[in-house]
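Before surveying the methods themselves, it helps to consider a single example record, giving the amino acid sequence and backbone structure tokens:
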Amino acid sequence: MPLTPEAQAEIADARATPRPTLRAVSEGMEAHLYTAHPVLDHGFVRVIDYMGDDSAIVQAARVSYGAGTKHVSNDEGLIRYLMRHWHSTPFEMCEVKFHVKLPVFVARQWIRHRTANVNEYSARYSILDREFYIPAPENLAAQSTVNNQGRGAVLEGEEAARVLELLKSDAGRAYDNYEAMLSQDGQQGLARELARMNLPANIYTQWYWKVDLHNLFHFLRLRADAHAQYEIRVYAELMCKLVADWVPLAYAAFADYRMGGVNLSAKGLEVIRRRLAGEDVTQETSGMSKGEWREFEGVFG
């Protein structure tokens, strides 16, 4: 269960006591505030706080203090222009703080995105819960034969069952030993900061992660991509939905230009021009490496 009854009661209480404010409010994000959205088997994402909305991006770009004579269509056009031309500062005017519960190995990937403020649950002071990420059978896959970072065919039958049993038994045994080392029943008990070293990478941790919209978009572009590891991608995909409700105009531009768009190298652009002129261009005559050509053909055929 992602949240304890006590945590659920705390969330219900927070949502039941709204307060008036003069600051910009996103109705879409207000609907999500504090609510825990489940991810994986024990994880969740919830919005703790946010600042700004689509109008904050526009306001920063125009350095204005009111709506003036501008219309929503003008705002949308400006936001799309900013996204199209890789402007970043206006999007940094919006911020959001998430509470995330995630497996440690996912957290180690996530923390590579360093342009955020992070405060993680400390196993030096507290005892971690007996909660581990155990993949669903359809997510157990062999190593990819073409991508050193990816997965290949799904494991089946006895091999899948054996791997699942190993994951469960190893995690359980490690936690049993963790508790045994901490125990003060007839012994001093090992310090928490040392006992934690024995815990597996699939145990769950939690953190608060605060980030501005520009850097959040960068995170989502990489981690919500189909090539990202499944276990971090499901978090990013959920966060995409939250952001779409928070800043719909900005997210629509992001989805169009970043998630749905393609960046071309000078060589790639030249291949397109040569093909439009009727030339039959191959990898050998393109000037691209085999890897570049494979990615190019994956988009353009």
Remarks:
- The first strand starts at residue 37 and ends at 39.
- Residues 137-200 form one domain.
- Strands lie at 37-39, 43-51, 95-103, 117-120, 141-143, 151-154, 204-212.
